[in-house]
Amino acid sequence: xxxxxxxxxxxxxxxxxxxxxxxxxxxxxxxxxxxxxxxxxxxxxxxxxxxxxxxxxxxxxxxxxxxxxxxxxxxxxxxxxxxxxxxxxxxxxxxxxxxxxxxxxxxxxxxxxxxxxxxxxxxxxxxxxxxxxxxxxxxxxxxxxxxxxxxxxxxxxxxxxxxxxxxxxxxxxxxxxxxxxxxxxxxxxxxxxxxxxxxxxxxxxxxxxxxxxxxxxxxxxxxxxxxxxxxxxxxxxxxxxxxxxxxxxxxxxxxxxxxxxxxxxxxxxxxxxxxxxxxxxxxxxxxxxxxxxxxxxxxxxxxxxxxxxxxxxxxxxxx
Length: 319
What we know:
Layout: H1 3-17, H2 21-32, H3 39-57, H4 63-86, H5 95-118, H6 126-142, H7 146-159, H8 164-176, H9 180-194, H10 206-217, H11 222-235, H12 247-265, H13 271-291, H14 296-309, H15 311-318
Helix pairs in contact: 1-2, 1-5, 2-3, 3-4, 3-5, 4-5, 5-6, 6-7, 6-8, 7-8, 8-9, 9-11, 10-11, 11-13, 12-13, 13-14, 14-15
């Protein structure tokens, strides 16, 4: 790469971080005319093209809509980046250069998204306020400010407690801060509470990314993958920090098990989602029985139910 190209990229990074991909694109295209085979410039221009319309349209949205647009577009952008990473060996582009380009866009996108969410006035609806705080927490996390992210996410949980998405992102931040014990407890709670409400694209920590890879390796994807995460979290001893259940929680858990068992009997229902959800409930009940030193007979009754539901999975648990 020539000195001119290096200089152009450095100038472009500043523009991108400041939320000006259109200006960065003009600069990079000018540099490309003198260095046509430079894959770093080509990829950076491609990224600028991806983001130009999004940034140009932000003023036509409300602050919340604008912030949401940026966060949702980032999810699509990561697909583009992953595809580029897979093609690195076929091209002259270096991984370090790709990471620098992505970093610049992450800073530009999440700084602007944070500004949008920070401009939203508090409303009477606690669910909405919690969601805004959660999104602000996500922005801080993606900008590398994990302590600030934790502060916003804890506020989100205080404003509107026990939301699976908030708990999962809190767990994610705790793991990134090195608080693995808290992370494991909260991930376990979040996925048990409502796996379908958790956005895996918002999670970055090693605990969850490795677990997701392993569950995906079992052939699951989409909604099914989400439901199997707490099951494999137990199987692989990832979600191994447990808390005692209150009497009210135990009663509700048994009622939910009964309801899911009846749902499973109806062929019109989605067995692919009900089965892992039910197994997760069985495992939680077994944990409760073990912690309260319940009779072995009761524990065996539940393990038998798991065996009847999925004999192969049962074997992996008892091996």
